[in-house]
Amino acid sequence: MHDVVIVGAGPVGLFLACELGLAGCSVLVLEREAEPRSPYKGKSLGMRGLSAASVEAFHRRGMLHQLRVASGAHDDPGADSEARPPSSLRGVGHFAGMRLDPARMDDAALPYRLPGAAMDGMVTHLEAVETVLSEQASRLGVEIRRGVTVSALTQNEESAVAHAGEHAYPARWVVGCDGGRSTVRGLAGFAFVGTEPQFTGYTMQASAADDGKLRSGINLTPTGMYLQMVAGHIAMADFDGGAFDRSQQLTRDHLQSVLRRVSGTDVTLTEVHLASSFTDRAMQTTTYRRGRVLLAGDAAHIHSPLGGQGLNTGIGDAMNLGWKLAATVHGHAPDGLLDTYTRERHPIGAKVLDWSRAQVAVMRPDPHCQAIQGVVRDLIGTRDGTTYVAQRLSGASIRYDLGSEHPLVGRSAPDLHLEDGTRLSDLMRDGRGVALDFSTGQCLHGSAKGWQSRMRHEAGPVRNDLGLGAVLVRPDGVVAWAGEPTPDRAAFEEAASRWFGCPES
Ligand SMILES: Cc1cc2nc3c(=O)[nH]c(=O)nc-3n(C[C@H](O)[C@H](O)[C@H](O)COP(=O)(O)OP(=O)(O)OC[C@H]3O[C@@H](n4cnc5c(N)ncnc54)[C@H](O)[C@@H]3O)c2cc1C
């Protein structure tokens, strides 16, 4: 009997496995594919944009350097990036194909964001993400069993059992991280609701006889959209109501005819090396937990890849769920802690689905939608518009409602920098919460002792205190409480009990 069985060794299942392993849970990951590698996960078709929030998650667990190396990034800013410009949102993508101008970003809109190694998003690919996470999971004692397809599931009040053929894998909890066509979601009876697709999307690695006929970058056309970031890697959206997706073989003739239609050219594809299709179907489960079965990542929410948010949302789910499930397994979770997973993450997923729907609506090739496109383009071109979209894409706009009016509570913690050179992110590597006390009298010392196995207490002056005296940061990097220069100890203890349970005797 494992503490947790995770179904699916995609990026979300692996990230969650690392979080649970770090917290000392016994974890088994069951993965359908016998081989971790696939041409669809490599540098071309597997290319993915990670938001600043996801980069921060890797950084907080000490995996960012490995991820940059595995991704082939040449611009590793190193652990201490004080010299970098304060804007975290440089190079942030687009909305419905309309690119943002980073120069218009208003850094003053993010007063609590401090410069550090995880200020920007980055480009990676699925193979790099999964390799780094698999290695970390193995170091943490997580077992990954490949070539195992989960096909049945049972649960009672004490446990849940995933079945694959003749084999049964019992656990106290099962988490479905098995992607958009999740088997676990169906077997556990989750309701999956949302909207049907407007388009079939395609992504392909192809050679063209005359690729000069295609423009580079993202191109919104009167008949759809096509995108070519590097020569030969082409994506496109064909507004056929999603009819084609997975209904027929992806032939060269079909892809060429769609590309000609959406690009308005007579380009000729000489060879298609790899291709896959997708749609903008936008669906989400109504809850992320049923009894002893939980969902995370694409298993819980699917939408079009426009604006690159699916993986980022899934990593956010894994960070949020990991420590809560671990505390529940270890028996020290305060009442209702696990239910805050759905309460916090479901609204984030719903917003991402709407963000994707809004982009599809703006991209539709009809006169009304194109008129809206013009208006949105004007708005995005303003300073406030750029800042708004950049905050949504980077994850900087995410704030959980934790019932506090303090503007920092519920947000990702600023990477505070102690005078001795330590950063808050350095203190988060072991997966515990952090009480960082930079008040003059360092008065939280006695209070924090009560939770020392679940929360680390560090004290000392910081280089930029942001007008605060102390912060309590949850293991997922979210600020649970922020104290004045002379912190209120009783308020700190109340927040610590709320998130970390009763103090140890
Ligand atoms: C073209 C494209 C571009 C994208 N670009 C971006 C981007 O730039 N940024 C971004 O954030 N997101 C992007 N996404 C979305 C992102 O790829 C997904 O959201 C992400 O991969 C989901 O991860 P996951 O771990 O939840 O699911 P998956 O990656 O689908 O992993 C699920 C795993 O579960 C396994 N599995 C399935 N069923 C079973 C079973 N019954 N038993 C055992 N194992 C099972 C599968 O083999 C797989 O390994 C893009 C998607 C596409 C299609």
From TrEMBL:
PANTHER family the UniProt entry points to: BINDING MONOOXYGENASE, PUTATIVE (JCVI)-RELATED, TRK SYSTEM POTASSIUM UPTAKE PROTEIN
Domain FAD-binding positions: 3-356
Matching Pfam families: FAD_binding_3, Rng_hyd_C
Comp. bias (Basic and acidic residues): 73-83
Membrane-crossing residue ranges in chain numbering: none
Highest taxon listed in the record's lineage: Bacteria
Protein name as it appears in the record: FAD-dependent oxidoreductase
Keyword Flavoprotein among UniProt keywords: yes
Required co-factors: FAD
Keywords on record: FAD, Flavoprotein
Region called Disordered, residue ranges: 71-92
Record has Flavoprotein as a keyword: yes
